[in-house]
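Marked as duplicate of an earlier ticket. Keeping the data here for the record.
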Amino acid sequence: MENLYAALTSVKVLRCSVGQIFNSLANGIRADHGEEGRDTKFLSEIEELLNAVTHHLRDVEQAVNNLSQPPGPLTLGNTNFLSQECTQERQALYSQLVLSYKWTDKIHEYSNHAAALLSQNSLKRSYMNPGSAKRRRTQTSSHNVSPQAVDTVISAIDRQFNDMTMSISRPFATNAVLQVSLGRVLQAVIAFKGLMIEWVVVKGYGEAFDLWADSRHKVFRKITENSHAAMLHFYSPTLPELAVRSFMTWFHSYITLFSEPCKKCGSHLHCALPPTWRDLRTLEPFHEECKL
């Protein structure tokens, strides 16, 4: 691509130098040539411009020689004739097709990069491997956990944090729905499937406990989004108890939502919002714009 850009630049310079020759010939002998030797000065000027054109033409030839030929013929079909249209309405079609081609080419390139990155950071939440031809023994999943085991884990977490209250209900058969209150700061509804956290909704103090409705406050809607990210981060199919305990420890750090400033900028508010992000390792508070 660098050689192609260099060749195009050389062609532009050559066109400019040729345009200067035609411009000088059209203007003819000017007043700045003086009274004496006007013809000689005019011819000298034209000769210098021709020498410049010759020099630029050599640059173009050298740049073209550095280009590598494409592996196969480029078949554009009938689109070649769009650039030769005389009507004003159809002249822009070819340029639009070129832009569309470049856009789709960029989409393919970015998609390949995204696929490579996502394959390295898989967020699969099951043991199934469709690419494996061998039949292996199904391992114990965090989905199939007895309600008594779930109650035991949640009770242990409840005893760990004195300023966080929890209550369990089971409106959907054996799966637990946990209602969490962090003092007078916020409250949350956490839906489980066995020992796997499936959904989190964070609301303000005094709002109704509803698993299907978002909070009317932007700050708690932002914390809900961050909770979903943390839910996927801490998920572990082999250590489900540790995953739930780690998530609840991270969630407990929001007890200082309105009292602790951002660790990066040192401000309590940024864009009218407190630090709504907690670092997944250090639990330090950050604004959404400061965590990057």
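See parent ticket for discussion. The mean pLDDT is 83.
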